[in-house]
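Example for reference:
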Amino acid sequence: MLSPRHQALLRAAQAIADHHPEPELAQIFDRPLVILSAPRSGSNLLFESLRTAESLWSIGAESHFIFNAFPELHPATRHYESGALTEADATPERCHLMRACFLALAQDSAGRRYLDQPENERPASIRLLEKTPRNALNVPFMRKLFPGMQ
């Protein structure tokens, strides 16, 4: 059972996904910058430093909250074989909805949410900064989720 916060995120994401067709939503994320690192390796310092750059957008924290909104991706669903996500896990429908989740939470370096800005003032694309240690296990999945990630 999803928490009320996860349910609210998925409702918001579905509305975004319904409003933005797949190619359009994918193009909003221009060359996402994904920090791949082991836990306790200094990645928080790197993330917090980069997050102050005016040209970068983030969700303000690690993306565990987004991934946890998709119970089918949880290791328990996979009988705890592995927490790694593969390219096969990155179905077009799942990627579209997950991108919508990221867009729902995206904020600039001043903490202004992308979707709170008037539509005519929003940038056509954003450079997302993403940092979650589990992504080191999910590189094939992340490449499908964010084509062009760096």
Remarks:
- The helical segments are 4-19, 22-28, 43-50, 64-68, 92-105, 139-145.
